[in-house]
Amino acid sequence: MDIVSTAPTPFSQLYGAHHSWLLGLLRRRLSNRWDAADLAQDTFIRVLKRPPAHADEVGERSYLATIARGLCIDHWRRRQLEQAWLQSLAERPAAVQPSIEQRAIIVETLYEVDAMLTRLPRNVRQAFLLAQLHGMPYKQIAVQLGVCERMVKKYMAQALLHCAVLEAELDGLLVQ
Fold it and tell me: Does pTM surpass 0.85?
C-alpha cells in the first residue's frame, strides 16, 4: 500500500495559520458566529482567487483583514437593503405578498442595483436617482447639481448603460 505524502500548499498554510484569528476578528465585528464563519470562508475563497504577495505574518493578516472588512461592509449593506425590503413587505396586504422564491430574487436584485449605483460616479448616481426616484426633469437636475443640462443627459446615458449591463447580467443569472 503506497501512501502518498503531499507537502502543504501555501494556501493551506495560510488558512491553518490565520483562520482562527480571522474568525475571532469577524465574530467581534459581526456579533454573530454564523455570519462570521460564512465571511471567513468567503475571505479565503477570495484569497484563492488572488493570493497575497506578502510573505510575512503581519502582511498576510493585513491582507485578510482588508478583504474581510470589505465583505463586512457588503454584508451590512445587504442587511440594510433586506430590512428596508421586509419593512415595505410588512406594509402590504397578505394577498399580494410575493413567494419566498420571489423575495429572494427581489432582494438579490436590489443588492445588485445598489452595488451598481455605488460604482457610479457621484454626480451620475445623483442625476439618475433624482430622475428615476423623484421624477425631476433634466433642467431641474442640472440646477441642483450645478452643471449644464447637456451634462445631465450624459450622466443619464452613463447610468442607463450601467443599468442595461446589469439587466443583461441578471437575465443571464435568472435564465440559467
Answer: no
